[in-house]
Amino acid sequence: MIKQLIIGDAKQELAATRRILERLPEEHMNWKPHMKSMTLGGLSTHLVNLVNWQIAIFLSAELDLSTLPDRREALENREDVLKEFDENLVKLEELLADCDEKTLGEEWTLRHGDHVILRQPRAIALRTFGLSHMVHHRAQLGVYLRLLDIPVPGFYGPSADEESK
């Protein structure tokens, strides 16, 4: 039962994330709303990377951020973003289908070198570090689209762009 809840939650959030990525305006991939913000392409690429991190939760007992590049180059167009997102999604869905409740309960660690950032059962790490983190950045992307006057899809009901008038 726990596995079914986790998989259902993950599938819903991943599908919602794909819906917003489908709206990326290619002419604005280098745009950012503030000098401290990521570009639209950078934020979209980060959302793709978060699926990679969700995959990492199932592939090993820990992820050491100090072993990863600081920042990868932003994907430059919607097609590349969707292609990589979909490829990663297939891998994640396979891992979710193959895991059992014992695996979901095993400890997983996120670290940066010797500094432990979090240590949680895989199921909780998937929810917090994986899905909630993705939802946070998806909301940021929604603000970017709103500021660019691009219709924002609804995630938990209709958005202001989808409401009947």
From TrEMBL:
Gene3D superfamilies assigned: dinb family like domain (1.20.120.450)
Keywords: Coiled coil, Metal-binding
Keyword Coiled coil listed: yes
Domain of life assignment: Bacteria
Coiled coil: 75-102
Family: Belongs to the DinB family.
Protein name: DinB family protein
Species classification: Bacteria, Bacillati, Bacillota, Bacilli, Bacillales
